[in-house]
Amino acid sequence: MEARKGKHPRQQLEFLSQIFKISSLGFIILSIVFFLNQVNLADYFPIKTVKVFGVNRVNKNEVHEVLLPLVNRGFFTINIEYIRDRLLQMPWIADLYVRRVWPDQVEVTLIEKKPVARWNGETLLSEGGCIVCP
Predict the structure, then answer these.
(1) Cβ atoms 112, 131 nearer than 8 A
(2) How far is CA 81 from CA 13, 50, 77, in A?
(3) Lowest-confidence region among 66-70, 90-94, 123-127
């Protein structure tokens, strides 16, 4: 008998089975990604409470104005780093910490700059040498 060139039917069946498994797994992953993109997680996990700690010299209304548009997203989609970057642009804030608290809260802890001297009678000089308007 002469040997056939190519694969045996069993090997071909195993190869097709592996291709089917990989294709099925890819389809499932793409379906999950599509589903998560279609579902608005903000509707299911909205931020209901924002707590701000450490406010002394910082204007609370300004903090709320900055925070309000940034926390209208869901618990999982809120951008903590962007909130931190935006609040650090305020004049009296030296540093801050932002964190999520399950199931529907965001906590912001501010560390304010400390004034050490008056500059020209109108502005304050902080420990780091920054001029800060009162």
Answers:
(1) no
(2) 51, 16, 12
(3) 123-127
